[in-house]
Specification:
165 residues, mainly alpha, Cytochrome Bc1 Complex, Chain D, domain 2, 2 domains, 9 helices
Length: 165
């Protein structure tokens, strides 16, 4: 687990740019992601290398352990009200809460988005839009973000990072 925490942070709260916080993620989602990394279906050299030698039992162990960590708190600082409003409008228009839950907590194979790192969210959204992000669920996400301007993606990432119910 120490190798996971080195990048994803103690208690699953990442402090590294473009590295997601994993605390509070649904176990099945984590299992699917580790499987995709192990099978070289996700584009991340470090994660592919880390997962390459894992057995199915290892994948289950790590996903269950990480899923038991508490979700990250809201980031320190104030959200930009204009960006939050724009992000909320995009989220309503694209029905984000239908899959990710109204509180963006995620479930089953759908990731938690609330309080995720803003830079990571923006990268993931851009990768879905461009088709770079491959693997589990990419078709639905690619369709969801298709045609959105970069400013809309940035506003959505900001809303989710600073999510308040």
């Amino acid at each position: 687990m120490k190798s996971c925490f080195a990048c994803h942070g103690e208690q699953g709260r990442s402090q590294l740019p473009l590295t997601p916080s994993l605390g509070g993620q649904p176990g099945f989602f984590l299992l699917a992601q580790l499987f995709l990394f192990r099978e070289d279906r996700r584009d991340n050299v470090a994660m592919t290398a880390a997962a390459k030698g894992m057995s199915d039992a290892d994948l289950r162990f790590f996903s269950e352990r990480i899923a038991s960590l508490p979700p990250p708190p809201a980031p320190i600082g104030n959200a930009d009200p204009t960006r939050v409003a724009r992000g909320a409008a995009v989220a309503r228009q694209r029905h984000c809460a239908n899959c990710h839950n109204p509180d963006y907590s995620g479930h089953n194979n759908v990731p938690r988005l609330a309080h995720q790192r803003e830079d990571y969210l923006l990268k993931a959204l851009r990768d879905y839009r461009s088709g770079k992000r491959i693997g589990y669920g990419n078709a639905a996400m690619a369709e969801t973000v298709a045609g959105l301007a970069d400013a809309d993606l940035a506003a959505l990432a900001h809303l989710l990072a600073y999510w308040k119910r």
